[in-house]
Design a protein that fits this description.
Blueprint: E1 3-9, H1 13-26, E2 32-38, H2 45-52, E3 57-60, H3 66-76, E4 82-86, E5 90-91, H4 97-106, E6 110-118, E7 128-129, H5 134-141, E8 168-169, E9 172-173, E10 177-181, H6 182-188, H7 200-210, E11 214-225, H8 236-253, H9 256-279, H10 283-295
Parallel strand pairs: 1-2, 1-4, 2-3, 6-11
Antiparallel strand pairs: 4-10, 5-11, 7-9, 8-11
Helix pairs in contact: 5-9, 8-9, 8-10, 9-10
Length: 296
């Protein structure tokens, strides 16, 4: 078995069906399996998937485990040489995934690799960056890395389309769609069980890099991720989850003094965003960041 596609589902029956259909159509040139972990959707997803896709391995959980723990469950039954973590709202649009597998086998000491991720309108979706060191948190919170040429600063989040048009070695890649050799995933201990959702990809990649492996983005292979797409909407849970995860990662991997500095930068950045978004009339975002500041 070359690749085990692992999809975590929580009340996304139609979306996960689209993800599976795209794999069935476009995953060519290699052997694969699909494993869906249902996080207690209670919407008929399990019965629907088992009836429509008898070859798909569907695992029913009795509670919502979150993204990372759900994927860990799927990995336990995976037989593939490579694990492809695939969001339920992602889908293939061509056969370029075979290029990703070919490239993966060419790279020495590979720990994780991701395709180019596109929005539904085929614009490029922000999907990677560099570890949130104190300097990078400061650049992020102060909006400095959003300025033209900001990608040269190796920011935490890279929001410059041109950056994604070449193969890059990064510190982290998004969990929306990325591939990890099974032996590497197991060696570093899988996804952190304490992170329910958002930021688990940063933590996993941190441990992969710390173990001496490489993390890359390969734009010759492409997938579409619906997510927030090009609508411009920002998820409250994503913002709050990211704040929480950064503090968790600092508490886990850095010293107390670094954790305190991270708290200060996040709080200042949150207050700055409250001010900016209030002036711009974006009340909802201001309220979200007000809530985020309280978590710090």
């Amino acid at each position: 078995m070359d690749i085990s596609f692992i999809i975590v589902n929580y009340k996304t029956q139609e979306l996960v069906a689209g993800a599976i259909d795209s794999i069935n159509i476009y995953a060519k040139g290699f052997n694969w399996e699909i494993i869906v972990v249902d996080n207690d959707s209670q919407d008929g997803s399990v019965e629907f998937l088992r009836e429509k896709y008898p070859k798909v391995k569907v695992i029913r959980e009795k509670q919502n485990l979150g993204f990372g723990r759900g994927n860990n469950v799927g990995v336990k039954q995976a037989k593939g040489e490579y694990l492809f973590f695939f969001n339920s709202d992602a889908y293939l649009t061509d056969t370029s995934l075979s290029k990703l597998l070919d490239r993966t086998r060419e790279i020495e000491n590979l720990g994780a690799i991701a395709p180019l991720i596109l929005n539904t309108d085929k614009s490029i979706q922000q999907s990677g960056g560099y570890f949130p060191t104190l300097l990078k948190i400061f650049l992020w919170m102060s909006f400095i890395d959003d300025l033209p040429g900001g990608a040269a600063l190796k920011p935490f989040h890279i929001d410059h389309d041109g950056f994604y048009k070449k193969e890059r070695e990064l510190d982290w890649i998004t969990g929306a769609a990325f591939m990890v050799p099974a032996e590497v995933f197991k060696k570093v201990g899988g996804f952190d069980r304490e992170i329910f959702m958002y930021g688990e990809d940063v933590d996993l990649c941190y441990r992969i890099k710390k173990a001496g492996y490489r993390v890359l983005m390969y734009p010759e292979s492409r997938i579409v991720h619906i997510g927030q797409g090009s609508s411009g909407k920002i998820s409250k849970s994503a913002i709050l989850g990211e704040y929480k995860t950064i503090l968790h990662v600092y508490e886990k991997h850095q010293g107390k003094s670094s954790l305190q500095m991270a708290r200060i930068f996040l709080k200042i950045g949150g207050l700055l965003r409250i001010l900016v978004f209030s002036l711009l009339g974006r009340k909802e975002l201001s309220q979200i960041y007000a809530e985020a500041v309280k978590t710090v």
